[in-house]
Input
Amino acid sequence: MNDRPIGVFDSGLGGLTVLKEIMKILPNENIVYFGDTARVPYGPRSKETVMKYTFQAINFLISKNVKAIVIACNTATARCLKEANEKYDIPILGVIEAGARTAAYSTKNKIVGVIGTEGTIRSKAYNLEIGKIDKDIRIIDKSCPLFVPIVEEGWANTDIASLTAKRYLKELVDENIDSLVLGCTHYPLLKRTIGQIVGEKVKLVNPAKETAKDLKKVLEANSVLRKDNSGVYEYYVSDIPEKFASIAGEFLKKEIKDIKTIEIQKY
Ligand code: DGL
Output
């Protein structure tokens, strides 16, 4: 039972930022990662479409006999975490509650920036979750739709990323934010570039670590924590694996081989 893997998915590479923290906090767990590379980005799509894609990803992961699932995508969390939990009976976690919690505890001046995809920002999911913790926190939010393609292209540390970040983030810095939620799992890959633009006084909040801690608690509560041996990792994508393999390998600092391509529409 405990050897059953954890399922983690995202529209593409972004979920790797969550995967990395899960690997650190839960090194014994086997993991199946799915990146929906055929249909990235999810950000500009409707709730119905994102929900359809998310349920297909969940169906695929369940076919791999997973014991829990992490939706390592803010857009899918914002659009349909609730619906996913109503539909399936295995534990399914998102990233937004964890990110909101981290932000609420990070801010001192109670002015928090939130950046994410159009879908996440439009949903106001972060505003809602942060407001539940501290209603006095003022939130300045902004969608940054070009960040995801820049990351998927492997351009996170280029002058193009830097110029784009400057354009998107200036207004948040002008509002005197002291914390900035990286409300899209792709964005921690741009951490260096974003950090240079907002300056070191602004704390960058990555929901990944808290999400991994939440996952550990859920596994403990369900008595399914794997305690022995190192975890084994499997990677699946829905289209061309080469670019995914090279960026993932660089980011996770390990060779990613044997990425399998699946037809996600079948699930
Ligand atoms: N990385 C995802 C997120 O956290 C999705 C980005 C996208 O596909 O637009 O929102």
Notes: The domain at 6-94+209-266 is CATH 3.40.50.1860 (Rossmann fold).
